[in-house]
Amino acid sequence: MAWLARALQADARDDARAAVAACARGLDALEEHQMRLGATELRAYGTAHGAELATLAQRDALRRGDVRRLLFWSERWRATAVAARSAPIREDKELAAELEALRSVSRLLGETEMAASRRNALERERRRLEAAVQARTRRRPGSHNPGEGGFNLEELVDELGPNTLIELVTVDSVLHVIVVKGRRVRLHTVGTIPERDVQMNRFVLRRLAHRPSQPEGELMLKHAGTRLEAALLGGAAADLGDGPVVVIPPAQLAAVPWTLMPSLGDRVVTVAPSAATWLRARRIRPPSRRRVALVVGPGLATIGAEVAPLRSRYPDAVVHGHGSATADHVLRALDGAWLAHIAAHSTFRADNPMFSSIRLDDGPLTVHDFERLGRAPYQMVLAGCDSGVAAPVGADELLGLASSLGPLGAAGIVASVVPVNDVAAVPLMLALHDALQGGARLPEALLAMRRAAGDDPLARATAHSFLALGA
Fold this sequence. Notes:
17 helices
């Protein structure tokens, strides 16, 4: 990369102005190239080429002690791949046929009794179909259009209103927290990212979900949340005020159960991959018709127990389950809906996140299937396990089920970052929908859900397993 070479040369001779200018030109060129790629995963992985340019500019901002410039450069190259949707694939009949075949093979592989030779043959066919789907999506042309302009701090401040934004930034393995409240922008340096503490908190939630009768559960939750807050927010926790908070984490911290932290547990909290994507989500207009879709997948311990009472709350809802929850039916119901609730098992594929899926009656509905939507639901509740987990790729990008919905028009998503207890989730989901029907947005409804959990450690662990993503 010529611009990276120029930036490094200028940095070596202590010419900060020339180095930053070269970083800007290089990122512009990379973004133009990136948007020529039709497939989301190619755009996401491609951002790695700009990571060094962005880091050079961030270092310069830190040397200057200029927090606003640090925020600008952190936003400049964050979540650019998910800022725009992939090239439309709704009319690609061959891709639809390959995805349908993949669902059929995956469903057959879910059968428990099968000869080893047949299972091996089906596994080979599954791998062949996945490769064919990837090859086909990667051949799609891009839009040739760069993203929607640069980051504007004044626009962000105006839109934030009473919200406080905290953006976590890593530069040379050091974690910094930028706090934007009103027109004040402050910087807190925390230290190295505590990978062990992050993993331990998710472990605590999983343990309480599957071993609920633990008398020490409340103490475990409190201890885990306190440690997590100290490790990730440090002194920034005392700088948040009392209002709603928007959390912008780096990709490797996207699956953190943020509301476990004492400073965030009893307030409205939203998580987004970048401040720019939060701004775009805030400005998405809801559909004129308040159409609701309710979906129940197979194999749930509760058999989708929340859906029957939800159907009485939304009498005009389109409902699919117990045989009718097929990919075609579900995608038609989701397309352009005002609200969708999917009670189904979900699977995160760390080896290939674009094949992360929701289990339906005819097999898995993958991220590639979601990209066939004309418009994602305005609000979406993914009640299954790990539905909010995504893989960090490229410079600071995420690939997974929930992360795919923002570019398709979803303003808000509720999803889990750990496996949840299906039985405990049912009354909590009803509390969430009660708040929605009272006029709350998803982040506000999620706070109502956490409050409805009361003092029961199992219910609280389940509630803290869900995040409000988007806006």
